[in-house]
Amino acid sequence: MPYSACSRRWLLGSLVWLAGIASEARADLFSYVNKPDASFSWKLKDKLETPDGTIYHLQLVSQTWQDIRWEHDLQVFLPKGVKPGGKMLLWNQGGKASLKSSIFGMQLAQKAQAPVALLFGIPNQPLFGKLTEDALIAETFVRYLDTKDPSWPLLFPMVKSLVKAMDALQEFAQKEWGVRLDGFIVSGASKRGWTTWLTAAADTRVKAIAPLVIDTLNMPEQLKLQLRSYGRYSDQIRDYTKRGLAPPPDTPEARRLWQWVDPWNYRDRINVPTMIINGANDPYWTVDSLNLYWDGLKNDKWLLYVPNAGHNLRQKHADGKGEDLDRAINTLIAFSKHIVKENPMPKLHWKHDDADGQARLTVTAEPRPLGARLWVAQAPTRDFRKASWKEQPAEARDGTVVGLVAPPQTGYVAFFGELDFEIDGVRHPLSTQVRVLEAQK
To answer: What architecture is the 32-346 domain classified under in CATH?
Structure first.
């Protein structure tokens, strides 16, 4: 049936309104990040020579937000024998610099054979009655809804902290090493991964990103998927549900807020290589959350699922004796090496379909993978948070890998493919998307 003139006007008006909201969403993040702030400063606090290399400790003031001065530790690690170049890995996290962080930072730099910077205090906390992490973010969202002051959402100053850290690092590298830094590989986990996505949209100096365990782009659809999978929202997002933020209130301010903070709405601007790293048992998200946004991303992208690992990405060993971060760290390091060396990442293409009554995954890869396998899990419902992932062989011929999974007789089965590659002696896996199978009734 053809549209009436009234219907066409209504549709056109709706599209203009939606475009206006999206444009306004971008404008407020960018206007906050780019607004001059006279409190920005940095200084080199100390320089420590170690057998492994040099550790520089900078003190950074990124901004003053809501009359609160944001101060950060900023550590820079230069391994012995490594000459600084034009790119640096910039990892953002909460807390302050410590002995533990110094060991972690130098290990990253040694494995990457490149300078690494760790930015702390993302966000500055505790604030507003000792609130931290998601409770603090939720509080700032509510304050925006109450006041309509667009500077309140905490992700804005979190992003600006990274932007000002890049300013400081460029000045530092020029002064200390005589080197012009022209690009950064930005990474962080959870809400720091959230910040990583938004920083890529806000600053062109970001040349690549590796967001970890923030499997929630396209947030309105993610909430619907949680309800279908769990029957309720994940307990891990209760700081938002108990404040009435999820599901979002049906108000212009609430719609605008989620437009501002959902990286999905910036996908046209995020055109840098991206390595997404998730835990297959992460209790925050559904097992196939990524399928709601993967195809819509416009950038070159790669993926790693860590089986039998939750939000901390520590893979539990099959024998039950310990856990480690090897899969996540090796893939992060390999990705960084590819970017620093301008060496193309492996190319993967996959297809999920069915053959002879079984679910089939076909993956083509260049170069040829060093190894390949499927990871398969079973669950009585669509909730795989406590499921055990087991390795299953996949057939590899030249650069093609094929894996078959029988459909479940009861309940659900989830599976994904994993292929091994290597750069400079660092062996690392890459994954495919997850497919979920339901028993036929």
So the answer is: 3-Layer(aba) Sandwich (3.40)
pLDDT of residue 26: 52
Domain range list for the chain: 32-346, 349-438
Fold assignment, 349-438:
Immunoglobulin-like (2.60.40)
Per-residue confidence (pLDDT) for residue 320, from 0 to 100: 77
Structure tokens of 362? 């076909």
pTM attached to this predicted model: 0.92
As a whole number of Å, the end-to-end CA separation of the chain is: 37
Task: Return the pLDDT at 319.
Answer: 80
* 80, amino acid identity: K
247 Cβ neighbours under 8 A, 6+ residues apart: 223
Residues of the chain with pLDDT under 50: 1-25
Q: Using N-to-C axis directions, what is the helix angle for 5-34 and 252-261, rounded to 10°?
A: 60
Give pLDDT, residue 27.
60
Got the DSSP string for 16-38? HHHHHHHHHHHHHHHHHHHS--T
